[in-house]
Amino acid sequence: MSLRLSTVILPYRRWHEGGRSTWARAEQLGFHTAYTYDHLSWRSFRDGPWFGAVPTLTAAAAVTERLRLGTLVTSPNFRHPVTLAKELISLDDVSGGRITLGIGAGGTGFDATALGQEPWTPRERADRFGEFVPLLDRLLTEDAVSYEGDFYSAHEARNIPGCVQRPRLPFAVAATGPRGLRLAARHGQAWVTTGDPKLFESGTPEQSERALRDQADRLADACAAIGREVSELDRILLTGFTPERSRPLESVDAFVEFAGRHRDLGFTELVVHWPIADSDFAANEKLFERIAMEAPAQLGE
Question: Is residue 1 predicted with pLDDT exceeding 80?
Answer without folding.
Answer: no
